[in-house]
Write a structure and sequence with these properties.
Blueprint lengths: L7 E7 L2 E8 L1 E6 L2 E6 L5 E16 L2 E17 L2 E6 L2 E3 L5 H21 L2 H25 L1
Parallel strand pairs: 1-7
Antiparallel strand pairs: 1-2, 3-4, 3-5, 5-6, 6-7, 6-8
Helix pairs in contact: 1-2
Amino acid sequence: MANPEHLFTVKVVTNSGVIYDHLTSIIDFRAVDGQRSIQFNHTPLLTPLAIGEVTVKRSREMSQRVDHIAVNGGYLEFSNNVATIIADSAERARNIDLSRAEAAKERAEKRIKEAEAKHDEQSIARAQVALRRAVNRISVYNRYKH
């Protein structure tokens, strides 16, 4: 069993409110400069997040539970053994609607093709971000379900 003194709090907040708030032994996430992990008593940190998955490993007696969260940009701040993720948008894997995510992926791919035909670089860039977000949600959902 994990020692309670070696757990820390993870909160994920969006403009809709707090979507996640648990104790953890370690979190893994993608910052804009690469993959990172945080454990108890990590050095204070403020870093921008890339579109990616956040995994939260929660110790429960003899087993480890892992929560998967699709995060679409934002910031992670860690201090005093509290990790706060302020995300542009985020969804726990168990709450992702796969058919909605797949439809968003198809829409983004269609918008990219249309923007490329018009040589509209700004629209291409926006559609590519939408595509990365949709693919991230699908990927997190699939990892959670398997």
